[in-house]
Amino acid sequence: MSWICWFVLAAVIPVTLGTNPGVKVKLTEKGLEYGRQLGIALIQQKLKTIKVPDFSGTEKVSPIGKVQYSLSNMQIVDVGLPKSAVDLVPGTGVRLSIGSASISLHGNWRVKYLKIIKDSGSFDLNVNGLTISATIAIKSDETGRPAVSTVNCAATVGSAKIKFHGGASWLYNLFTSFIDKALRNALQKQICPLVTDAISDLNPQLKTLNVLAQVDQYAEIEYSMVSSPTVSQSSIDLGLKGEFYNIGKHQEPPFSPTAFTLPPQTNNMLSLGMSAFTANSAAFVYNKAGVLSLYITDDMIPQSSPIRLNTKTFGAFIPQIAKLFPGLMMKLLVKTVTTPVVTFEPNNATVQATGTVTAYAIQPNATLSPLFVLNLDTSVSAQVFVSEMRLAGAVTLNKMDLTLGTSYVGEFQVRSLDNILQMVLKVVVIPKLNVQLAKGYPLPKIGKMKLVNTELQVLKDYMLIGTDVQFTS
């Protein structure tokens, strides 16, 4: 994966003006330095593919006269790129500058003079003082994915030194008078086309950007840009939509992202801000899909628990149940009635959920007889973490409030069921929820991108992920 793939996180998809992003990304100077290292390795490999064509000619060499010469089988032996720099070009993209570079090649020579005398051998050529400057534009293609192109490129070749193997000393005069210039021109003409090709070769890799990433069978998340990237002298800042949708049906939620600003960052290559809007859009999607509900049966309760889901246990707190439905097993349906609300405060992520708990007696013929409906208000704390290229989490119960919605067995004290319902939430509902949360959802990425040295902070209205990045081939 190349350095430009790293930079083009700054130009993802067509622009939708006037919308705050759910996700923000900042590429720092440390990230640019990593990109430079990747880029130099790429350019170096590309320049090793330079092919210098065979060429021949006739020159007058004193005192010999006309000399016919030919150079053939010229191959690049080494490319040295000791000095390079990458700078951001506000409003455009990236400028790559390479200086004090060198190219070494090996070839064969042949001469004929005085009509009958022939000579041949090999030579080694070292070209020093090579400079390259290229400006790369970052845009989006017709599919809404990033694309790169070369705006301009300039290359100059400095001095050259040749060492002939075989032949007489006058060969150096022949080289100095003509071959030196011819070889340097041949090399110089190759450099910018190869740089341009190297940049164009990145576009297939850029199409791997997960603009629309599937999370599971119910949801996908969109990482399209909501505004043009902001390119400054020290960073690239961009805003991504960062919104969950039901698969195949993109319905906007009844709320919008609020503005937030990423702090300056120097310790990491990349800063990634995930807003509460993104998390709340996920809650909206899963609630709309009807999957925030769970039937709980007795076999889901640990065998060691003295509390069982049957009319005998509940009858101890609500005698009418034991009288009306003696000796029956029970089933509980826990489900949300409104979309849960996620809030981010410094060092604290919480989820507020309003739902119902409906209790049923299971008749011998498997029909369900409703016993009561409780209104359930819960608050859970969320721990969020990065697992490979996914953002995952786990929740713990903070508090639970119960009120009676409907009773089919007469009046009873709801508070008498607090311990039972807390146990059900802690040992059944929350563990099952955490299994799903641990799977996480995909973060934006290009190709085989890996996050390292990752740190996560919960701040006001968003989470901040500071991370370094590695690309693997």
TrEMBL record:
Disulfide bonds: 153-192
GO cellular component, one term: extracellular space
SUPFAM superfamilies reported in the protein's UniProt record: Bactericidal permeability-increasing protein, BPI
Keyword Secreted applies: yes
Lipid-binding serum glycoprotein N-terminal domain: residues covered: 26-249
Coiled-coil stretches noted in the UniProt entry, renumbered to this chain: none
Subcellular location: Secreted
A matching Pfam family: LBP_BPI_CETP_C
Signal peptide: 1-18
Keyword Cytoplasm attached: no
Lipid-binding serum glycoprotein C-terminal domain ranges (all copies): 264-467
Biological-process GO terms, alphabetical: defense response to Gram-negative bacterium; innate immune response
CDD domains given in the database record: BPI1 (cd00025)
UniProt subunit comment: Monomer. Homodimer; disulfide-linked.
PANTHER family: BACTERICIDAL PERMEABILITY-INCREASING BPI PROTEIN-RELATED, BACTERICIDAL PERMEABILITY-INCREASING PROTEIN
Name of the protein described by the UniProt record: Bactericidal permeability-increasing protein
Higher taxonomy: Eukaryota, Metazoa, Chordata, Craniata, Vertebrata
